[in-house]
Amino acid sequence: MTIQPHVNSKTELAFDFIQNTNTNLFLTGKAGTGKTTFLRSLGNRLSKRMIVVAPTGVAAVNAGGVTIHSFFQIPFGPYLPGSKSALSIEPHQRFNRIKIKIMKSIDLLVIDEISMVRCDLLDAVDEVLRRFKDRNKPFGGVQLLMIGDLQQLAPVVKDDERELLSGYYDSFFFFGSHALQKTNYVCIELTHIYRQKDKHFIELLNKIGANQIDDKILSDLNKRFDPDYSRFIDKGYISLTTHNYQSQQINNSKLAQLPGQTYTFEAEVNGDFPEYAYPADSRLILKTGAQVMFIKNDTSPEKLFYNGKIGTVTEINDEAIFVKCPGAPYTIAVMRMEWSNTRYTIDDETKAINEEVIGTFTQYPLKLAWAITIHKSQGLTFDHAIIDAQQAFAHGQVYVALSRCRTLEGIVLSSMISARSLRNDVVVSDYILGIPEKEPDSNQLQMAKAAFFQSLMVELFDFSSLTRRFGYLMKLLIEHQSILHPAFIDGARRVQYRMNSEMTAVAEKFAIQIKTAIAQNGQPDENGYLIERLKSAGRYFKEKAGEIIITFFTTNSIETDNKQVRKSLSEVVERILEEIAIKSACFGVCENGYTLKNFLEARAVAGIEDIAVPRKKSKEQPIYDESAKETEIYGLLKEWRTYMAAEMDVAPYMIMHNKVLILLSTRLPDTLEELKLIKGLGQRKINQYGEQLLAIISDYKKQLQDEVSG
Fold first, then answer.
1. Chain segment 493-517, per-residue pLDDT in tens
2. How far is CA 598 from the centre of its chain?
3. Number of CB atoms found within 10 A of residue 155's CB
4. Positive or negative, the Cα torsion across 369, 263, 358, 273?
């Protein structure tokens, strides 16, 4: 996208916040200010991993994304924060592996048409993201880009939902979200209007949006009232109605009045494309002479039509539908076009988030256009429109209708507009008045960049989460030491000790140095000293992560016949390996010269790699692990065997074979019954030495527990 010079500062400031900070952003602006253009440009410009969602199926298809409800698997209906809602019961458990990986790896969540998103829906998104990202941060630490115009269509709140939600929220608009209110989000308002060029009309729309409605505004608008408005219907004007039945009635009536053959065109739907997301009529009924509207932009180099362009059908044959638009010297041969329904997936090789087409909808990009509802006109641009606002019932309806038009002269009113029909929600008006206070400047941008970098570094060099996970692992190991290999327990204890002394303690000191360096010199790209310190730290911690933690857990298996214990321990080890893998990848970026792009990419890719905990090869194979000879308990048992052999004046193997000592060291039995399960230890040996063996093992376990707890 080429940014126009006169809007460069606003759009570039918005892009800079999205690209280089983690600050949530509400990008707003009147109709026609380029919000959608900005959204479409992100895919080519942005280096962050993002997904795009929207509140409705059609909006999602138009934005090139998916619906909020489908992606986050949020049930329809109210979400009550802190309550045992439907969200808390089952849907989370049904996320597939790919969806979980995507949520774990996204940096940015783009929500289009935010004006229609209810506050409780945004809080439901917060709950889902916290489950798979950082549970202590709003939206799991994912950055939000919310795009929309609050003066357009509002969220739908039914009467019973209103009564229920009013006990939790002061406002039903997105800015009433509890999670959003916990963030220091900023607002950027795009002000240059592309759609309208008439300064008087722009000023009029601005005053309507700001609830500054006076007699002069009403007078200027009502000059466009024409009681004989019907004479414009067949002259390229489209009627904008408040209710669906009105537009259907007008279209059906006008079509029936036309002479000639009726043509019916059925859409071709392949794969997964739900009906609620159909972007066009699945059954298109036309006649020659019908007034139609294009509902998709021309993708050819000629760009003969755009979404919202009005024309008249001049010919229909087996090859195409021919449409003539007012003022155009040519007739357009319209062919069928395809819309895609997509889902997000992850490329197995590159680990990039991709859009996968799961369904297609093919139809002529046309619809009858003597009339359309105001709701469905959102996002479109018309040269000429007939507006009937007499039955306006929702906040923003008349504003949306008026702002669809390029000029005031292109509007014909079929009914007089009253101050009541220009209704605007007081809560919205107050919020809009406060937007300038939330608009950031370049100084705030620099502060946000530094804060983002510092937060990334603090998180990277914070080992408290790993320390907690290790503590829990050791607790489980001690609880189940009787059925676990002592070599694994001893090894885990050594890993814990070395991590605390050689990594955690060092990282705490380095984090202080980082904070000081940032406070003094700002970003790493402006600070050679900081880059060199990061290189040294990255090299040190990456080596230690591999040497101390990764090597041990990837070369030592959890060996026990108790499936539940093995599962519990494996899950903890997986979490440890996942966390250290992410840190190790980020340390690698620091070692090679930190850049935000590489850092975020490395963190995301490492976070979605599959982690496998080593397991023993066969359930039937007894554990004769030679490494057991390195354990303290094996040494104690061997000393006992040597003593008994000397006492009885026999060879040591006559007392007990080495393999039996290894199994005793591995299993650590507590009872005579458990001794019977040791292969090679018969009843005679148990009767002769059982109590002595159990006493040695019991003393060892007690000593082990005292050392860990101490």
1. 989 999 999 999 999 988 888 888 8
2. 20
3. 19
4. positive
In this structure, are residues 401 and 423 in contact, taking their beta carbons and an 8 Å threshold?
Answer: no
Q: Where does 10-194 sit in CATH, by number?
A: 3.40.50.300
- The answer on pLDDT for 248 being more than 90 is yes
Determine the Cα–Cα distance for residues 280 and 329; give it in Å rounded to an integer: 27
Indicate if 628-708 has the same CATH topology as 10-194: no
In whole angstroms, give the CA distance from residue 471 to residue 485: 18
Cα gap 30→148, rounded to integer Å:
9
Q: Which two tokens stand for residue 376?
A: 């469905």
- Residue 382 DSSP code: B
Dump pLDDT digits (tens) for 191-235.
Answer: 876 655 678 888 888 888 777 888 899 999 999 999 999 888 878
**Calculated CA dihedral for residues 6, 8, 11, 16, nearest 10 degrees:** -160
**R_g of the chain, CA atoms, integer Å:** 34
Is 370 exposed, middle or buried (CB count within 10 Å of its CB: 0-12, 13-18, 19+)? Answer: buried
Structure tokens at 432: 């809009």
Distance between CA atoms of 637 and 675, rounded to whole angstroms? 14
Closest to 607 in 3D by CA, of 346, 343, 355: 346
- At 324-352, the pLDDT tens digits run 998 888 999 999 999 999 988 988 888 88
In whole angstroms, what is the distance from residue 45 CA to residue 39 CA? 10
DSSP string of 112-124, one letter each residue: SSGGG--HHHHHH
Predicted confidence (pLDDT) per residue in 526-557, tens digit: 667 788 889 999 999 999 998 889 888 888 88
Q: What CA dihedral angle connects 389, 393, 394 and 398, to 10 degrees? A: 10
Q: How confident is the model at residue 65 (pLDDT cuts 50, 70, 90)?
A: confident
Return the pLDDT at 460. Answer: 94
Structure tokens given for 192: 């240059």
Hey, where are the domains in the chain? Answer: 10-194, 211-340+355-423, 445-607, 628-708
Question: Are 128 and 92 a contacting pair, CB within 8 Å?
Answer: yes
Distance of CA 211 to the CA centre of its chain: 35
CATH of 628-708, one of 1.10.150.80, 3.40.50.1220, 3.30.70.260, 3.30.360.10: 1.10.150.80
Pairing of strands 50-54, 108-111: parallel
Which candidate, 585, 584, 577, places its Cα nearest to that of 605? Answer: 585
